[in-house]
Amino acid sequence: MPEYPEMENYRRLLSQHIINLPITGVTVNRDKSLNVEPEVFKASLTGVRIVFVERRGKNLIFHLQDGKRLLLHLMLGGLLFYGTEEERPNRTTQIELHFGEQILYIMGLRLGYMHFLTVKQTEEALAKLGPDIMDRKLTEDKFALRLKGRRGSLKSVLVNQSVVAGIGNCYADEIAFEAGLLPSAPVQGMPDETVSRLYQAVRKTLSDAADIGGYMEMPFMTGDTVTGAYNDQCKVYDRGGETCVRCGGTIRKEEQSGRKVFYCPDCQHEH
Q1: Taking residues 115-121, what's their average pLDDT?
Q2: Would you state the pLDDT for residue 37?
Q3: Residue 144 is part of which domain span?
Q4: Could you tell me if residue 83 is inside a domain?
Q5: Chain centre distance of CA 216
Q6: Helices and strands (H and E) in the chain: how many
Q7: Cα distances (angstroms) measured from residue 202 to each of 69, 103, 171
Q8: Do residues 4 and 206 lie in contact, with contact meaning Cβ atoms separated by under 8 Å?
Q9: Cβ–Cβ < 8 Å for 227, 215
């Protein structure tokens, strides 16, 4: 599932290419991806411009010139591609936003969605989200307060979107590795020094991953060499059985509360 780095990479690229371009057409191939009738969706968007693309957690919010919003969540397997009909990947698309000859293809929305909402409805839809993990207002002290009194393992708390929004399976493991902590480390009673180390690991891991495009499997557009570059940079995620780049130990793969976890038992600890 796309997490902060992937969605932030998409936000940056979309902001470069579609802002203030009129939507010249809309194609809907999966009605269930919408919250309104396809004809209403098409009529509401045709001729309208996207004036700003915002990211909140794993969500993208397209601000329309008429004040309405498009709320996109890719969920598991969702991908974006921007280009012409000739350039498009050989994949099924659920929604297509046309900008003249250039088209934003939204694909892989088996569970994901794009909803047409008012500002109030958008805020209501996102009301249960915790603060965005990379929001400048989420200082180290405020991050510590979000963890204070929480029960459960480090990984389960990091991926809880009501605690902080934007981290999923992959980066929870990468952050734990950067901090030298086990994904199973208990959050309750975590020493202040450890929380500080964790906060720095969050900032470094996510900003580095976003800057090199996250781990998406497909480029955003023809000629895009950035998107997906982090896939080869993962230190532990999906590296079960491989050698730890830090200590030479062996990366272990286990299951924790129904989630895959990857870690090095030799250089990751509880504190």
Answers
A1: 98
A2: 98
A3: 140-263
A4: yes
A5: 10
A6: 7, 10
A7: 29, 34, 9
A8: yes
A9: no
CATH number at 94 reads 3.20.190.10
Q: What is the rounded CA–CA span in Å between residue 254 and residue 262?
A: 7
CATH number of the domain enclosing 165? 1.10.8.50
Beta carbons of 78 and 113 less than 8 angstroms apart: no
Which residues, in sequence order, are bridge partners of residue 64?
Answer: 50
Please state the domain count of the chain: 2
Q: Mind listing the pLDDT tens digit for each residue in 233-263?
A: 999 999 999 999 999 999 999 998 889 999 9
Residue 220: name the closest of 208, 228, 209 by CA. Answer: 228
Measured distance CA(89)–CA(95) in Å, rounded: 14
Q: What tokens appear for 245 in the block?
A: 């780049």
Residue 57 near residue 4 (C-beta atoms within 8 A): yes
Distance separating alpha carbons of residues 88 and 234, to the nearest angstrom: 28
Residue keyed to tokens 């057409």: 25
d(CA 176, CA 205): 10
Task: Give bridge partners of residue 254 from the DSSP assignment.
Answer: 261
Write the single-letter amino acid at 122: T
CA atoms in the 13 A half-sphere facing the CB of 65: 12
Give the chain's radius of gyration (CA, Å). Answer: 20
CB 177 within 8 A of CB 263: yes
Give catalytic residue positions.
2-3, 58, 259
The answer as to whether 134 is a domain residue is no
Cβ proximity of 210 and 4 under 8 Å? yes
Chain-centroid distance of CA 157 in Å reads: 16
Distance CA 127, CA 89 (A): 35
> How many CB atoms sit inside 10 A of residue 232's CB?
8
Answering whether pTM is above 0.85, one says yes
Answer yes or no: is 271 within a domain. Answer: no
- Can you tell me the distance from the alpha carbon of 236 to that of 252, in angstroms, rounded to the nearest whole number? 8
